[in-house]
Design goal:
The complex is a heterodimer of chains A (245) and B (562).
Chain A (H helix, E strand, L loop, with lengths): L3 E7 L8 E7 L7 H10 L20 E4 L2 E4 L11 E5 L6 E3 L2 E2 L2 H8 L24 H5 L11 H5 L1 H5 L6 H11 L7 H8 L13 H5 L6 H24 L3
Chain B lengths: L1 E11 L3 H13 L5 E4 L17 E2 L8 H11 L6 H22 L13 E2 L9 E2 L5 H16 L2 E3 L2 E8 L6 E8 L5 E11 L20 H9 L3 E2 L4 E8 L14 H5 L2 E3 L7 H4 L9 H13 L9 E4 L5 H7 L1 H9 L9 E10 L2 E3 L11 E3 L4 E2 L11 H20 L9 H12 L9 H15 L6 H19 L11 H25 L17 H4 L1 E8 L2 E8 L8
Parallel strand pairs in B: 1-2, 1-9, 2-6, 9-16, 15-17
Antiparallel strand pairs in B: 3-5, 4-5, 7-8, 8-9, 10-15, 10-18, 11-14, 12-13, 13-14, 18-19
Helix pairs in contact in B: 1-4, 1-11, 2-3, 3-11, 5-15, 13-14, 13-15, 14-15
Classes of the chains: A alpha+beta (245), B alpha/beta (562).
The structure holds flavin-adenine dinucleotide, iron/sulfur cluster (SF4) and FE2/S2 (inorganic) cluster (FES).
Chain lengths: 245, 562
């Protein structure tokens, strides 16, 4: 494989000025973008800061902006991007150093949406909730791939940039998952939380999140469902009052 | 120069063991001050996150605790601590249901809506609970959500550096940490410290594990005076990917492939397992399949890149696409379609069966020191079954969490010895003063030494050579310097990792040299038999001044005899 030109953003902190450092590296044809960073680390940039753990696309630590687009760097091959790489940290999050952002605001937004499972009181702890694959409950659930909380969608979302209070696509996608989970008891509370000012109705359906998600999730689709559920919720409640289960 | 923190329970590591321990301690007593420390991100680091195939638990009326226990102990070549193995199989049904019903994981269902359990190699019953072929994402994400809900303090991108002990060395009183991002040290005073750093055989040139792991917990415990056991027992998984020139090299293709009926072929197209285990063939245990592949390659019957082939295409493309989506994606990325063609694989270092000696509730021989998960030893004996790893980390994490919450009650903090803090920070800081060597070539060298001499096929000769080379590398490490500052300097972290990996490598090689038989993952070409008469013994190690002392103790065969 020919030599690759890699430019990486260097920045001591969020306050510091951005600068780019450019090097040529030699890589195998199976090298990922993360491998390119390892090559820099062993060569000209021993103190380059970036995040990774699993290197197999499961931990979601290594998302960055590569040639202008969010990528999971361990899971995309250099040869599929080109001979020149320009690597920057994720957007919409403060930079810790170089290519590593501070994920705290991302998870703080997530935590505002009651992301933890709250078991229904009548769940049988000695069994697994029955979910036949042809049941209505099963079909109503979200069957998208698993989210790895990489933050790519948060970085790509224009509405997050414009409205820092907006919880963003990943948090809303998680909320939908729980809201349609028949084992969880906080449906109404959660629906309230995520359909307010900072929630689903903030989304303008631009679809950036769907375009960049390395797991092939469409948060856009989940957010659309949340909007519909919110609209129907008063009727559902009334119905439940008239015909208790 | 170092920040101070005082807490009741300090848990190092945020994999399955660490997070379960924290939750259980919190549930026991929400008033406790608990501090979690993670070398990576909360829920985003370690191997539990990478669990593919799934979680073993006896849930079906046709399965039995006794059957799972026997699989575990036979799989472990009778080296297991049978108390610990029984605890694993007895507790795992309850804990996997807790993961589902309380923590919120949603495991895969069969068509009728009941829990689905899939086949794993080396087991008498299909008992592996899973979420497709990427189970760890679900387990870790949901555990993290619950941790968020408790408000437990978590220091991310912070590493445990050294344990602190009382003046007489008998009690652990805290630890020195290093905040990787700021480069600042933190001295923590804690009533109890729990090690859940997930060990990790990353000293081998091919390893499947999370990249930040470096035997930190085991090495820290050893330096503090804890008893270690079975250090020679390193598991090699037979189906690591072959991706020259990438860190993906050694990444895993999951066990379920062999469970589902994968075939393995050597470079000449023979199903070579015929030669090694004609009865179980590819569904034989990991140690046998790894050794067989290794021997095929050494005998010149490997692929061009020194591997063998795994083939699942005969199971039908649709079946593979549906059941092994994650694995197929992983292969597609490097240009192979697992559903339609064979893929090159080679054994890869995967798991440490050995580690810190614990009892059923995570107590160690040092007062105030607890351990759980891969950092500990005894559950798996000489070989771990697929699906017993995440079960171990969650079961024993939960137990240790419950136990430590009770233990710290009515206990006071011990006295921190200032000299120990200074020693720890100076040893670490030394790598920042200019010397001559870079840690990277040392890492490569260690990877080669361990792979060739203390790996899948060992001998007295090779192990002695390994020990010489390790001693040499230890000296060279003293001259290592890491350019750049203190802040978020990953090359500095690498030097600190090397220190722990060298300590552990030496213990692995020494224990392997001592064990003059072949058993489970440990294979000596100069002692090929499993010698029950002389070697139904665990090898222990602990620090003795600057060196290590090793001794053996017979395995207590309380429940099952060979
Ligand atoms: C690719 C792969 C697939 C696997 N698949 C399966 C499977 O299908 N079924 C199964 O049962 N088992 C499987 N295992 C094994 C399983 O992952 C382990 O047995 C288990 O998850 C270990 O859990 P743990 O909590 O002990 O450690 P880990 O989950 O590895 O967590 C270790 C934690 O400690 C942190 N840490 C490390 N050093 C320090 C330090 N110095 N200070 C602070 N924190 C530190 C790490 O960052 C991490 O957070 C697999 C392992 C791998 C590598
Ligand atoms: S939804 Fe996709 S892009 Fe967003 S955090 Fe999850 S995996 Fe990443
Ligand atoms: S390193 Fe884990 S997803 Fe890339």
């Amino acid at each position: 494989m020919p030599k690759i030109t890699v430019s990486v953003q260097r920045r001591a902190s969020d306050q510091d000025a951005r600068s780019f450092e450019t090097h040529e590296v030699e890589l195998s044809d199976k090298a990922s973008v993360l491998d390119a960073l390892f090559a820099l680390q062993r060569g000209p940039c021993p103190d380059l800061a970036f995040r990774f753990s699993c290197r197999v696309g499961m931990c979601g630590s290594c998302a960055m902006v590569v040639n202008g687009r969010e990528q999971l760097t361990c899971s995309v091959l250099v040869k599929d991007i080109g001979n020149t790489l320009r690597i920057e940290p994720l957007r919409n999050l403060p930079v810790k150093r170089d290519l590593a952002v501070d994920m705290k605001p991302f998870f703080a937004a997530y935590q505002r949406t009651l992301p933890n499972f709250t078991p229904r009181d009548d769940l049988d702890p000695s069994d697994f909730y029955r979910l036949p694959l042809d049941s209505k409950e099963w079909k109503a659930m979200s069957h998208q791939p698993q989210c790895i909380d990489c933050g790519a969608c948060y970085s790509a979302c224009t509405l997050v940039t414009l409205h820092p209070r907006y919880v963003g696509p990943m948090a809303l996608h998680r909320a939908l998952n729980l809201i349609v989970d028949p084992r969880d008891k906080s449906r109404s509370e959660r629906l309230n939380l995520v359909t307010g000012e900072a929630g689903a109705f903030r989304c303008h359906t631009l679809g950036n999140c769907r375009d960049v998600c390395p797991r092939g999730i469409s948060p856009t689709h989940s957010i659309e469902r949340l909007k519909r559920l919110a609209v129907w919720e008063p009727f559902r409640k009334m119905f439940a009052r008239i015909f208790p289960a | 120069m170092s920040n101070q923190l005082s807490t009741d329970i300090l848990i190092l590591g945020t994999g399955g063991a660490g997070l379960m321990a924290a939750l259980h301690a919190f549930w026991r007593d929400p008033a406790l001050d608990i501090t979690l420390v993670s070398k990576g991100g909360l829920g985003k680091s370690g191997c539990t996150r990478m669990v593919q195939g799934g979680y073993n638990a006896v849930l079906d009326a046709k399965d039995s605790i006794q059957a799972h226990f026997e699989d575990t102990v036979k799989g472990g070549a009778f080296l297991n601590d049978q108390e610990l193995a029984m605890t694993l199989v007895e507790d795992s049904p309850r804990i996997v249901r807790e993961l589902e019903n309380r923590i919120g994981c949603l495991f895969d269902r069969a068509a009728d809506g009941r829990i689905h359990q899939k086949a794993f190699a080396g087991q008498s019953f299909d008992r592996t609970v899973h979420v497709g072929d990427l189970t760890g994402i679900e387990i870790m994400s949901r555990l993290r959500d619950q941790i968020f809900a408790t408000g437990i303090r978590c220091l991310e991108y912070t590493r445990g550096l050294e344990l602190l002990t009382s003046a007489d060395g008998q009690r652990v009183v805290g630890a020195v940490l290093l905040d990787i991002q700021s480069g600042k040290f933190i001295t923590v005073k804690s009533k109890a410290v729990m090690l859940c750093t997930g060990a990790g055989p990353l000293m081998y040139q091919r390893s499947a594990c999370a990249q930040e792991k470096a035997m930190d917990g085991v090495a820290m415990a050893y330096r503090a005076g804890a008893n270690l056991m079975d250090m020679e027992m390193v598991q090699f998984h037979p189906t690591g990917m072959v991706v020259p020139g990438s860190r993906l090299n050694g990444a895993l293709l999951e066990e379920g492939l062999r469970g589902a009926g994968a075939h393995l072929f050597n470079g000449q197209g023979e199903r070579f397992m015929q030669r090694y285990d004609p009865e179980k063939m590819e569904r034989s245990t990991r140690d046998r399949v790894s050794r067989a592949s290794y021997m095929e390659v050494t005998a010149g019957r490997g692929t061009a890149n020194g591997g063998v082939w795994i083939d699942v295409s005969h199971l039908g493309a649709e079946f593979v696409e549906k059941n092994f989506t994650g694995m197929r994606d992983r292969c597609l990325r490097i240009g192979f379609d697992l559903a339609r063609e064979k893929v090159e694989v080679c054994p890869t270092a995967h798991f440490n069966m050995g580690g810190i000696r614990i009892n059923r509730d995570g107590f160690t021989n040092l007062e105030g020191l607890f351990a759980a998960g891969e950092d500990s030893a005894g559950v798996h004996g000489a070989n771990r079954l697929g699906g017993n790893g995440v079960a171990e980390s969650t079961v024993f994490g939960a137990r240790a969490g419950d136990a430590v919450a009770g233990w710290v009650k009515n206990r006071k903090h011990g006295e921190v010895q200032a000299t120990q803090v200074t020693d720890a920070t100076e040893t670490a800081g030394n790598f920042l003063t200019p010397h001559s060597e870079s840690p990277w070539p040392l890492r490569d060298e260690l990877g080669r030494v361990m792979w060739e001499r203390a790996g899948i096929v060992r001998s007295g000769e090779k192990l002695k050579q390994a020990l010489n080379e390790i001693a040499d590398l230890k000296q060279r490490l003293e001259k290592v310097s890491t350019p750049g500052g203190r802040e978020f300097n990953l090359t500095w972290q690498q030097a600190l990792d090397m220190r722990n990996m060298l300590t552990a490598s030496e213990l692995i090689a020494r224990s392997a040299l001592m064990r003059e038989d072949s058993r489970g993952a440990h294979y000596r070409e100069d002692f090929t038999n499993t010698d029950h008469a002389n070697w139904l013994k665990n090898i222990y190690a602990s620090r003795d001044g600057d060196g290590a002392k090793l001794w053996t103790e017979p395995v207590k065969l309380t429940k099952l005899q060979p």
